[in-house]
Prior knowledge:
- The protein is α/β, with parallel strands linked by helices.
- It contains twelve helices and six strands.
- A hairpin with a 4-residue loop joins strand 5 and strand 6 (about 155-160).
- It is globular.
- The two termini are about 25 Å apart.
- One of its GO terms (molecular function) is exonuclease activity.
- This is 5'-3' exonuclease.
Amino acid sequence: MSKQGKLLAIDGLNIVRRVYEASPEPDSDLKASIALRHAFSSFRNVLEAHAPTHVLAAFDYGGPNWRHALYPRYREGRAAMPAPLREALPEFHQRLRQAGLQVLAVPEVEADDVIATGVMRWLQEGRGEAIVATTDKDLHILIAHGALVWDHFKNEWHDDAWVRQRFGVAPELLHDLLALMGDPTDGVPGVSKIGMKTAARLLNAYGSLDAVMAGAGILKTPLGERLRAEREILVLSRRLVELRTDVRLGVSWNMLAYESA
């Protein structure tokens, strides 16, 4: 088997929502149509920039997923997708298919889980490099396993050094960091009064979330008390930020093969 493959996993709604929200006009069919035209160009630019051999274009299926089953308040503060954009998405998916892409949206999981499953399988099978096109912090955990993240909007690579600089921890500790500090955009609670710097300091001192709980969690300090009092919330938060890597994708690598024009 050739080692020269290159998988590009595109976080579809990450691009679509960013493009749509960059326009100040009120929600309308016209705004959705213009945004999706720009989003399609973004997809084309990403494909041209990276010339992948395989492409996985992932979108959220919509509706409740396994995280809501764990924690009904998951994402409750996040604004729903504007109706004109939601209604225009099926046609956009069709355009992507006509351009030779497989569009993957799996019920009861998020696009992040679909991407994590595909990227981890690709890397574990030794098929070559893996690139994730996203600005989503959760997906940066995949850098710990050998993937790179591409920020299409800033035209920059995110690697191990970038994660350490931005979050203060190694990529493999990113989910522990997000569990401690919480993630308001997703409604992940975290531990009260722990921000990114405190979370990073704890993880770098103790080495992992389990070690933080075992060590800092017995301290006779307000921080130790909070860690003890909110242990269950912390365990829940860690499960919410975890990416699933066992999603049934329903596609083969041959189906994800991409011929650049």
